[in-house]
Structure formats: structure tokens, C-alpha cells
Amino acid sequence: MSDLYPLKFNPILKEKIWGGQNLKTSLNKKIPINKKIGESWEISGIDDNISVVENGFLAENELDEMIEVYMGDLVGDKVYDKFGTNFPLLIKFIDANEVLSIQVHPDDDLAKQRNGLNGKTEMWYIVDAQKDAELISGFNHKIDRNHYLNHLKNNELPQILNHEKVKAGDVFYIPAGRVHAIGAGIVLAEIQQTSDITYRIFDWNRKDDNGNLRELHTDEAIDAIDFKVEDNYKTEYKSIKDQFSKILSNKYFETNILDFENPVEKDYNQLDSFVIYMCLDGKFEIEYYDAEKIIVEKGETVLIPAVIEHLVLNPVVQSKLLEVYIPEQTNESKSKK
After folding, report:
1. Which has the closest alpha carbon to 303: 279, 270, 330?
2. Residue 256 scores a pLDDT above 60
3. I need a labelling partner for 126 at 20 to 30 A (CA). Which of 63, 100, 163, 254 fits?
4. Percentage of residues in the chain having pLDDT higher than 70
């Protein structure tokens, strides 16, 4: 039996011009009063933002150091072979108290060419949304580069973008290259590649506390944008009570949802990956190694080491969680639309 156990990490809170206090009310985060907290980085391998273990005898150890020591036992043998000590996902909760900038992320090829880093493909699960809250994902009709540049120059970019009304439970897949923005009044869970490269295209002519416009990256963005138009930008899925239900899968991550009020057993012996649980609602107990137990509450995120192959999830009250892991790289599946 390994000495590894389900790991919780100290959230890394990020002040943002568009942030607020909603992570406290929606997800029980300890937010400093009067701070505009826009993001809680739950699990991060980003340089200068490495997650630190919060619980158990491994508390105060950094994630990359843990991977160096435990290797495949922690992240899975195939994951370790591919990524080494670099944790491949960045897991966040986001509070868009005000609208975010319109932006785009580069794909792997462009990011490696420019920065020697990964691209950024991500997904959003809407945890909470005010009435009539909306986000932007993609274009609303077929356009070309010149059409786009003309609208940008004339301060009319939002007119050619696809605006979506949202509610709790909605999911949006944001592959690298898709222009997007989170609207005001939305709290969401974000799962993404380990990358912090963002090209800000348009920021609603917003000024910071010093009266300055924020930096834009319009020249960098133009080569990153995918102008393809989708029939439906929202990811459709079906959640079945007391069962892990698939939301989407791509080559970077697979995400499932579990809405449960009865104990659920889970066997991971064929997976060869770490597993992440993000508790969206309720409170549940993870039983592992037959007798060991840990409680996970609303707003908490926990990393299940790959060496833990079997566990039981016991809801204290009706609970809901996202399950995230690295799928088999040899069998890449497309995201469900």
C-alpha cells in the first residue's frame, strides 16, 4: 500500500479588475473582505504558482516536488512519461463579477513557436449565474480575417460574436483558437491545459484604478484565431443520478459529472492517470484503502493519486462533483457537442 492519499491544496487566489466576492457565497472560499478575487487556482503547475499541499503528512510540499518523488504513483505512469514533473492541467474556479475581456488562446504549435510552451484548450462548467447572464463563444456567422479586422478597428467586435445566455449546469468547450469572453454575473469551474497564455483582443474600453487602458494583444491574436463557425457552441450532455456521466473528452482531459445521493463505487485500475474531483455542491466522503476516509465539501478540489485504484464515494448530503483525468493518449476522442 502506498503512503499517498487524496490531496487537497491551498487555493491560490488571484485579484482581477473584473473579480468580486462571489467565490465566497457560491463556493465557500475564504475571500478577503474588499478584495476583487476573480480566480481561485485549485491545482496549478504554472511556474511561480505551484500548488502546495494543504492536508495530511505531506502538507506544505509543492506539487512538482511531489511528482518528482512519487512519479507514476501520483500522476500515472503514462502521464509521467509524457509530462515529467510538469502537471498537465490547471484547475480553477472563476468569479466574473464583471465581464472579462474578449480573448483567444493559441494552440500547441503556435504557443511552442512563440513561447516554447503549451497552447490552451479549456472548458467551462457554469456553477452559478445571475438572471440573463451571458458569455461569448465563437462567431455568430461566417467571416474572414478582413471582416474581423474591420469590426475590431471600428469598435464593433461584439456584433459578430456569438452571445449565449447561461444557467447553472451549462458547459462550454473552448478549444484553442476560439474567441471567447465570460460575462458578468457568472461563477464557473474551468479545466484547461497548463498554460497561462492569453491574447486580449478587446476590453470594453475599460480602465484600471490608475485610469489606464489594459494592454491588448491584437497582433498576436490574429494568427491564433480559428474563424470556423459552429452550429451549437454549448456542449450537450446528460447527467444520470448516482452515475458518472460523460460531459466531454479530448486529448488533453476528460470531464465527467456525478450527481449522487447514494454511495457510488469507482474502480480506476485501468486508467493510469491521476483523478481530480471538484465539489460543486453538497458534502461527501471518500473511502479508500478499504478503511481510510476523507471529507470533501462544496468548493473544495481534491487530487486522487493514480495509485489509488478503488474508492467509494459516500454522500453526506446530496452532492455534485466534476471528475477530471487524462485520457488514454492513443485513443483521442472528440468533444461531444
Report:
1. 279
2. yes
3. 63
4. 97
8 Å CB contact between 187 and 94: yes
In sequence order, the 6+-apart residues with CB closer than 8 A to the CB of 34 are none
CB burial of residue 141 (10 Å; 0-12, 13-18, 19+): exposed
Q: What is the pLDDT of residue 333?
A: 38
Q: Is 258 within 8 Å of 323 (Cβ atoms)? A: yes
- Full set of structural domains in the chain with CATH: 7-222 (2.60.120.10), 244-325 (2.60.120.10)
The share of the chain scoring above pLDDT 90, in percent, equals 92
Closest by alpha carbon to 194, among 102, 72, 111? 111
pLDDT tens digit string along 172-215?
999 999 999 999 999 999 999 999 999 999 999 888 878 888 89
Contact call for residues 79 and 324 (beta carbons, < 8 A)? no
Instruction: Answer positive or negative: Cα dihedral of 12, 17, 21, 23.
Output: negative
Q: What is the structure's pLDDT at 1?
A: 56
For residues 131 and 110, what is the distance between their CA atoms, to the nearest angstrom? 38
Q: Supply the mean pLDDT for the chain.
A: 95
- Residue 209 grid coordinates: 484604478
Contacts by residues 232-235 (CB-CB < 8 Å, ≥ 24 positions apart):
232/337, 233/137, 233/138, 233/162, 233/164, 233/172, 234/164, 234/170, 234/171, 234/172, 235/123, 235/171, 235/172, 235/173, 235/335, 235/336, 235/337
CA distances from 285 to 266, 281, 288 (A): 13, 13, 10
Q: Cell match 494543504: residue? A: 54
Distance CA 284, CA 64 (A): 28
DSSP notation for 115-157: HSS----EEEEEEEE-TT-EEEEEESS---HHHHHHHHHTT-G
Q: Are strands 275-288 and 310-325 parallel, antiparallel or unpaired?
A: antiparallel
Q: Which has the minimum average pLDDT: 2-11, 32-41, 200-209?
A: 200-209
List 178, 200, 206, 214, catalytic entry? 200
Measure the CA–CA gap between 107 and 88, rounded to whole angstroms.
15
Would the pLDDT of 139 be above 90?
Answer: yes
